Amino acid sequence: MLQGAGGVNTLHMTLKKAASMIDLPCTPSTDLSGKSALVTGGSSGIGLGAGVALARAGAQVTLAARGAGRLAKVVDQMQAEGLAASALVMDVADIVATAAQVAASGPFDILVNSAGMARHSAATETTEEDFDAVMNINLRGAYFLTQAVAKGMIMAGRGGSLINISSQMAHVGGVERALYCASKFAVEGFTKAMAIEFGAAGIRVNTICPTFILTPLTQPTFDDPDKRAWVERKIKLGRAGEIEDIMGAVLYLACDLSKLVTGSALMVDGGWTAD
């Protein structure tokens, strides 16, 4: 059958349009369905926020903390909202027990290491007890926890995202924070080294570096009017951080949005370290 002139023109226009179309890029997914996540320090503060953010994105979240009572309440509430959450009583300072728990509960696709502590004093007043207590959790515990989760990923032949909650104080100094800074600067160091080692296995390792976030851990600082004024003066956006300010950063580093990001420190500091 002969095609009329109108049909030829329509076909020509269709072919011309197809030839000129541009393949638009697709935004990587934030969906974490089918992924499992371990969040330490998960019963309060930044850890709780991280766990909720990951669970709302579809992940099966294991919240770990030392206190069983509050941990159970948090998990119950999350489950009541339809989120996939479970509890694991864990003390990251106990290296042997933590490694065994990770091996038994994993492998995990995501780690958010938010367990931490602070003991602030003038550097001349730091005691060995304070030093050991802070380093046992902030550095030693963080190091071996990250190692344990990475081992599980490697043995399972799967990649993943390891996220250490660091601090803006891992990049600057602060009065009465020599010990805390020392622990967090060290976290930045091993995070970068592990990112290099684990990259071939498809494992990404990064830190999130918050400014002062309103949590029970930082409450003593905010209760002191002079210290609160100092904090708010240093934060260029003029306010202290809230837990919700960290949740987006956690989701970003956990999902495909950051699949080429490793060995990096994501600053969530309101501009503190900009000068």
List the helices and strands and how they pair.
Layout: H1 5-20, E1 36-40, H2 45-56, E2 60-65, H3 68-80, E3 85-89, H4 95-105, E4 110-113, H5 128-156, E5 160-165, H6 178-198, E6 203-210, H7 219-223, H8 225-234, H9 244-254, E7 265-268
Parallel strand pairs: 1-2, 1-4, 2-3, 4-5, 5-6, 6-7
Architecture overview:
- The chain is an alpha/beta fold.
- The chain contains nine helices and seven strands.
- It has helices at 5-20, 45-56, 68-80, 95-105, 128-156, 178-198, 219-223, 225-234, 244-254; strands at residues 36-40, 60-65, 85-89, 110-113, 160-165, 203-210, 265-268.
- A seven-stranded parallel sheet has the order 3-2-1-4-5-6-7, with helices on both faces.
- β2, α3 and β3 form a beta-alpha-beta unit.
- The N and C termini lie far apart (75 Å).
CATH superfamily: NAD(P)-binding Rossmann-like Domain
CATH architecture: 3-Layer(aba) Sandwich
Count of alpha/pi helices? 9
- Major sheet strand order: 3-2-1-4-5-6-7
What percent of residues adopt helix (DSSP H or I)?
40-55%
The average pLDDT is 92
| Subunit organisation of the chains | single chain
Question: What is the CATH domain class?
Answer: Alpha Beta
